[in-house]
Amino acid sequence: MLLAIDCGNTNTVFSIWDGEKFLCTLRTSTHHARTADAYFTWFSTLINHYGIKLDIQDVIISSTVPRVVFNLRVFADRFFGCRPLVVGKPDCLLPVDVRVDEGTQVGPDRLVNTVAGFDRHGGDLILVDFGTATTFDVVAKDGAYIGGVIAPGVNLSLEALHQAAAALPHIDIAKPQKVIGTNTVECMQSGVFWGYVGLVREICDRIKAERDRPMKVISTGGLAPLFQQSYALFDAFEDDLTMHGLTVIHQHNKDN
Cα–Cα distance between 136 and 127 in angstroms, integer? Predict the structure, then answer.
């Protein structure tokens, strides 16, 4: 069994891979002060609920929050007796090239998504990840990561509106029935939803024009299903893209 851990700015996801399929996926909030013991207490309680008999031999970690990696390393070593593979570290080999400006640090999540996207869809891709930030990652024909775009995330934009304007409430994102809102909530939902539809379409169109070749657009992330239905923005939706990428990277390192 492989335990794949994806630590983002908002949530940390644990998935157990048995070599053929994911047995379960668990999610918790990301907190840098959470200890290895606290991780195991939470993890083992839920595993017992699912009735899974653990036989974890390997752990792989992708983290955009460097401060949590130490305790996750201790968690893997103390409770599973293994040294975890950490994406972005020199000893973690990638099956694809990274072609960006020298000295640029690419987020591990973006590299993992690139590996997963290329494995499932081949090259010439735009990967749109709706996370804390909305990221656009460009994958070349040969699978190399060649750059991308970073925009504020949907929920981050809503929170900024609420905090910066005293009269505007905190709302949840939803697809509005019409563009013109007739109350404050509808106006905010319309602005954010249709604003992001326009943002995604414009950025993807400009990437395709700059690359001057046909490209598939793949969406992932928590809010991706909400936008998947909107005016054929995407060619496919992948709800487990990052986790799949972690399994591919782990296998690549075992083979090499």
Answer: 5
Question: Around Cβ 254, how many Cβ atoms within 10 Å?
Answer: 10
pLDDT in tens, 130-181: 988 999 999 999 999 999 999 998 888 888 887 888 778 888 888 888 999 9
Amino acid, single-letter form, for residue 128: V
- For residues 126-131, give the mean pLDDT: 94
Helices and strands (DSSP H and E) totals, the chain: 7, 10
- Which residues are catalytic, by number? 109
Assign 3-class secondary structure to 30-99.
Answer: CCCCCCHHHHHHHHHHHHHHHCCCCCCCEEEEEECCHHHHHHHHHHHHHHHCCCCEECCCCCCCCCCCEC
Burial of 233 (0-12, 13-18, 19+ CB in 10 A): middle
Whole-model pTM?
A: 0.90
